[in-house]
Specification:
By secondary structure, the chain is mostly helical. It has helices spanning 2-18, 38-55, 57-60, 65-86, 89-122, 125-134, 140-158, 160-174, 179-198, 205-212, 231-245, 267-286, 292-312, 323-328, 341-346, 350-369, 371-383, 385-395, 401-411, 417-430, 439-448, 454-458, 461-478, and strands at 216-217, 220-221. Helix 8 runs parallel beside helix 21. It is found in: Membrane.
Amino acid sequence: MNPVKTSAHLLLLILLLTSNTLFAADASPNAIDMASHWSGILALTIFVTAILLVSFEEITHLRKSKPVLLAAGLIWALIGWMAVETGTTHSAEQAVRVTLLHYAELMLLILVVMTYINAMGERQVFIALRTWLCNRGLSYQGLFWSTGITTFLLSPFLDNLSSALLVGALILVIEPDNRRFISLGCINVVIAANAGGAFSPFGDITTLMVWQQNIETTNGTLSFWSFFNLLIPSLVNYLIPAGIMHFALPRGELKPSCEQVVMRRGARRIILLFLCAIATAVAFRGLLHLPAVIGMLTGLSYLQFFGYYLKKTHRSQEPGITDTEQLALPIPMDSKNPFDVFVRVARIEWDTLFFIYGVALSVGGLGYIGYLATASDLLYNQWGATSANIAVGLASSVIENVPTMYGVLTMMPTMSQGEWLLVTMSVGTGGSILAIGSAAGVALMGQSKGQYTFFSHLKWSPVILLAYAASIITHLWLNARLF
């Protein structure tokens, strides 16, 4: 699994360190020509080393936030030291403050979304959904399509990683010894999660990153509703491999029996409040022309007030959960205590937030030095936007999609709405080509304990690549007016 990703990163490092074009004088005036200086080369080496350590997370068990946090500090220390030497500290300070502001907006958005997801998990929303699917009395084909479609519909709201973990757990529980079905089912869930997350601003961290940037394209602003132009291309991306894998499924009926689980009090109202929070964020952005994060934080107050109501009216006889169900959930829960919104905040994925911080500051530093300006010229001016965006999507199958998208956003090439949507979809769905290309794939490989592997996914990579190409062609044809 990891050697493929590692090779890609080593190749990137070699190209960056041996290319004369990369160190050309295209850096910004404020970058004091660090691109051709030893300090710039050292900064680039630090970043690539950090990404390599992220790639080895499964082996080292070193959380991915740690190397990129250190890398971000070292890169900006080098920039600051050179700025002091040349008397350009003001420009360096302004650059890091702008990068930090962009991260802060994204971090607060993700924090609210994760808090709501944690709250719904604590109210047993996801366990109840999984139990409902389990007790439908479906065949292998029925379960395959039900889990895939459910994942595709959950991802736009829940995010692709959580959706894949939730539905993937159902496949593993129902048929724990059927390796063939588990492999196909997990591949189906990974593809559905990534495709479903591509057409919604809340479906993936990368789409959320693009939306919160408030990008001005050559033919208008990329609004919240613009992403839904990717619905049909994303559906094509999911349906083609699912339709082909359907013929490889085992035959027969399933007879699983899952204990009935009832959602805890207030679950439906929290779902409604989450939708209201999203609507508030969209209204702040689209109607008031204010940052969406202000609306999203306002939406968090809805949950806080409702949490106060739940705490004051808590009944000790409220239904709890079994130990088995707790272990099956990707979200920690405690049924003995009344609802506490700050417990939900404490249990969000802080490692992910710090990872994004490290990537944002590191990529921002490399952009200040001037490397991304040269890369942008090569990709978007010489190759052309469409070719560059397709290539970026393919790169995301072996490189983490967060730094890939952050690189594009830091370059900020001048593109049409159609091209921005293309890179959003390609980075989101390109990760399905290999099992290591997305967090959903890596997580399910760990969860399945050897029944869904890198090589079992690799057998279907040509079909997934075909779907990737078909979804791009569909987007280019169907949304031609946006280019």
